[in-house]
Design goal:
Strand 2 and strand 3 form a beta hairpin. The chain is built from one helix and ten strands. The protein is α+β, with helices and mostly antiparallel strands. An eight-stranded antiparallel beta barrel has the order 1-2-3-5-6-7-8-10.
């Protein structure tokens, strides 16, 4: 009887262990499902363009080019909610104890095109900025 009870407990423990192992990586996300990850460019003409680089780890860099010349790049952290399509970018310059600038956008992504409308307490941009994935 003791052997039968021990065998039953061992089988249950094995089943539970297999169940946990089967689900262990279901929630892992390496950024591949985040459509915003990558380099996006908005061309304003005359050698003026704007580049956002979004990394899978929630960091990024913003680069502005005027007449083809790079202005000082700015680093940021971001969150992107794929359900609400809300992008929040937080800029914190070196030496700042707290973030100085937080921008929030509605984002629509279709293939390699991203439409971005900034919004704030008083409203939102009526005309979206158009970025192309590079």
């Amino acid at each position: 009887m003791k052997v039968l009870k021990f065998l039953g407990i061992a089988i249950m423990a094995t089943i539970i262990n297999i169940s946990f192992m089967a689900c262990s990586d279901d929630d892992e996300d390496n950024g591949s499902s985040n459509p915003i990850v990558g380099t996006w460019q908005e061309d304003e003409g005359n050698g003026n363009y704007f580049v956002w680089k979004f990394n899978a780890d929630g960091t990024g860099i913003e680069q502005e080019y005027y007449n083809g010349q790079l202005e000082e790049p700015v680093t940021f952290t971001y969150t992107y909610d794929t359900k609400t399509t809300v992008l929040t970018i937080t800029y914190k310059e070196e030496g700042d104890l707290i973030a100085e600038d937080i921008d929030t956008y509605y984002v629509t992504i279709n293939d390699n095109t991203m439409k971005v409308r900034e919004f704030w307490d008083g409203g939102e941009d009526e005309t979206p900025d158009i970025y192309t994935k590079k």
